[in-house]
């Protein structure tokens, strides 16, 4: 089985919900990668400004460090992280053996509706443009599964667990 599952996708795709459920099912630690954003990144996004690669670099390194520890100690884990670009996912794969991606694919209209309905999140809906501009879906050479993020989260988790067990 993969040592770490990265639940990825744009804001509003359900990464946190699916990630928590998946971690519970796999009985491994869960990381909400948004919790690792420096205060400056949170403030920039809250002000309606998208992050660039330079802004993301320290955050991505923190996520990679968590993956490295999770794979090194043998505990594994699940992390909810946008992981929008192939190069970010490569960084995660280099951090630990057995990193696998669960891509929650979501259409723009549904993402808009979900993000607009949030009351307690720092990222405003207007930043979805930048996320979709940066989004690079999983490539055939990347280990993982793409699922429809409009499906019930428990159904998504069931499919992910089935797939992970088949490859493990």
UniProtKB/TrEMBL annotation:
InterPro entries: P-loop_NTPase, Shikimate/glucono_kinase, Therm_gnt_kin
Residues in coiled coil: none
Listed pathway(s): Carbohydrate acid metabolism
EC number: 2.7.1.12
Keywords: ATP-binding, Kinase, Nucleotide-binding, Transferase
Keyword Transferase: yes
Catalytic activity line of the entry: D-gluconate + ATP = 6-phospho-D-gluconate + ADP + H(+)
Matches recorded under Pfam families: SKI
NCBIfam families: therm_gnt_kin
Family, per entry: Belongs to the gluconokinase GntK/GntV family.
Protein name: Gluconokinase
């Amino acid at each position: 089985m993969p040592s770490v599952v990265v639940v990825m996708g744009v804001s509003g795709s359900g990464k946190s919900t699916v990630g928590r459920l998946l971690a519970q099912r796999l009985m491994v630690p869960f990381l909400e990668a948004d919790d690792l954003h420096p205060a400056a990144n949170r403030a920039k996004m809250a002000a309606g400004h998208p992050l660039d690669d330079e802004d993301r670099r320290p955050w991505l390194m923190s996520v990679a460090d968590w993956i490295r520890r999770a794979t090194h100690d043998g505990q594994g884990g699940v992390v909810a992280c946008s992981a929008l670009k192939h190069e970010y996912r490569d960084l995660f794969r280099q951090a630990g053996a057995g990193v696998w991606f669960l891509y929650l694919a979501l259409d723009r209209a549904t993402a808009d509706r979900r993000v607009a309905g949030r009351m307690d999140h720092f990222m405003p809906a207007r930043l979805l443009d930048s996320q979709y501009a940066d989004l690079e879906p999983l490539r055939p050479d990347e280990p993982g599964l793409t699922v429809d993020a409009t499906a019930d989260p428990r159904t998504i988790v069931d499919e992910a667990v089935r797939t992970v067990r088949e490859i493990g």
